[in-house]
């Protein structure tokens, strides 16, 4: 039965690919915003099924990748404090700062812990009341509600030694910033699936209204993505610009009201710096004054995120806004690998550079 199912999926995939080749109106650039989509495109070789005139641009959908180097340096400075236990997801430990990384600091003796949930960090704070436990919180609207709930639990349980560094980012302002970038030309979007389960499809109305571009929210299976790219191409062929929801089994127009209410209770929008996109107005989430006791940036006000410049050979910022492809980098796969990353896009599995390196495209790096 498994082989029959695979055969059927293969037939459907090739049928979709054939229709894409028929309806594509000409050279077309479609950006998938989600890092999970980027990973799936490379993992399943979907680029090989796209018509030659279609280029998939890889957008700023990897939260590890868009965190600027100054924020990494800030986390490193916190980890160096003798009273601090810094808890983080594993990918963040390997992202290079300007002179070090959290993984290097851990090897040097800093109390840096890998956690799989903000509740793990909260448990550390409960078990070690003599330590200041700081959770290095990252992610789009997908992960922010869980971190907000952890903060609310700490508040209810009166756990005073638990704080967050909020590096949460919002997807819609980033999409607007990409559209405003002078070196990027986008004909349509494949919208993020997981984020859209929280914010809903209505969050993308400005793209249709103000820019006249189609948006199709997609699931993560190979056929989901192929169908979503086809839906974008159909809109372009018909001269339409609409929001369509391919991921109907998980996404609604108004999103998850409970999760949005929790976000609104704990966080408020703020201006934020993004790797590759610079400062974007109201693109991040900061902890409200009401919960200032749980804000690490207030508690450790002397540790700030100073501007820092990425490695001069790294084009991660260009990749994140869709201006260039990973294989355009002269150090891709040579000096920069997942084992020795020079930039954040080579660290996380959702990073475009890491995905292309792992699954390959048959292309050789282009000299710059």
Give a structural overview.
The chain folds into 2 domains: 28-309, HypD, alpha/beta domain 2 (Rossmann fold, 3-Layer(aba) Sandwich), CATH 3.40.50.11740; 316-359, no CATH class. Residues 362-368 have low confidence and may be disordered. The protein is of the alpha/beta class and 368 residues long. The chain has helices spanning 2-23, 35-43, 63-66, 69-79, 90-93, 102-107, 118-127, 144-157, 171-180, 193-199, 205-211, 222-238, 257-266, 296-299, 316-320, 352-359; strands at residues 28-32, 54-58, 84-88, 112-114, 132-139, 162-169, 188-191, 215-217, 243-245, 267-274, 278-287. Helix 1 (2-23) runs parallel beside helix 12. The strands form 2 sheets. It has a 6-stranded mixed sheet, with helices on both faces. Strands 2-1-7-8-9 form a 5-stranded parallel sheet. The protein contains 16 helices and 11 strands.
Going by CATH, the homologous superfamily of the largest domain would be HypD, alpha/beta domain 2
The biggest sheet amounts to: 6 strands, mixed
Poorly predicted regions are 362-368
Widest sheet: strand order? Answer: 4-3-5-6-11-10
> Element order, helices and strands?
HEHEHHEHHEHEHEHEHHEHEHEEHHH
Structural class: alpha/beta
Radius of gyration from the CA trace? 21 Å
- What global shape is seen? globular
Number of domains: 2
**CATH topology grouping of the largest domain:** Rossmann fold
The percent range for helix content is 40-55%
Total of DSSP H or I helical runs spanning 4+ residues: 16
Mean pLDDT: 93
CATH class of the largest domain: Alpha Beta
Instruction: Count the E strands.
Output: 11
CATH architecture of the largest domain: 3-Layer(aba) Sandwich
Cα(first) to Cα(last) distance is 49 Å
Q: Which range does the strand content fall in?
A: 15-25%
């Amino acid at each position: 039965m498994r082989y029959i199912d695979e055969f059927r999926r293969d037939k459907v995939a090739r049928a979709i690919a054939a229709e894409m080749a028929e309806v594509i109106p000409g050279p077309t650039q479609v950006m998938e915003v989600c890092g999970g989509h980027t990973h799936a495109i490379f993992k399943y070789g979907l680029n090989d099924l796209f018509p030659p005139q279609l280029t998939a641009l890889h957008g700023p959908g990897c939260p590890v990748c868009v965190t600027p180097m100054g924020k990494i340096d800030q986390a490193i400075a916190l980890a160096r404090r003798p009273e601090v236990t810094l808890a983080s997801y594993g990918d963040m430990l390997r992202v290079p700062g300007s002179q070090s990384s959290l993984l290097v600091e851990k090897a040097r003796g800093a109390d840096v812990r890998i956690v799989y949930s903000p509740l793990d960090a909260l448990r550390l704070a409960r078990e070690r009341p003599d330590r200041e436990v700081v959770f290095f919180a990252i992610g789009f609207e997908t992960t922010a509600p869980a971190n907000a709930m952890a903060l609310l639990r700490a508040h209810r349980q009166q756990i005073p030694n638990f704080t967050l560094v909020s590096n949460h980012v919002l997807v819609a302002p980033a999409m607007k910033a990409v559209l405003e970038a002078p070196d990027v030309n986008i004909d349509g979007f494949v919208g993020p699936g997981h984020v859209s389960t929280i914010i809903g499809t209505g969050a993308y109305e400005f793209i249709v209204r103000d820019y006249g571009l189609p948006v199709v929210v997609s699931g993560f299976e190979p056929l989901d993505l192929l169908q979503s790219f086809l839906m974008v191409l159909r809109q372009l062929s018909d001269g339409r610009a609409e929001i369509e929801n391919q991921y109907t089994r998980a996404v609604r127009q108004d999103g998850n009201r409970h999760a949005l209410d929790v976000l609104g209770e704990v966080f408020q929008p703020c201006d934020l710096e993004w790797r590759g996109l610079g400062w974007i107005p109201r693109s991040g989430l900061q902890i409200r004054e009401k919960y200032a006791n749980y804000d690490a940036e207030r508690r450790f006000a002397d540790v700030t995120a100073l501007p820092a410049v990425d490695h001069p050979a790294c084009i991660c910022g260009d990749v994140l806004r869709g201006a260039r492809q990973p294989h355009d980098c002269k150090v891709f796969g040579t000096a920069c690998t997942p084992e020795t990353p020079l930039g954040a896009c080579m660290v996380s599995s959702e990073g475009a550079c890491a995905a292309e390196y792992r699954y390959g495209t048959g292309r050789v790096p282009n000299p710059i």
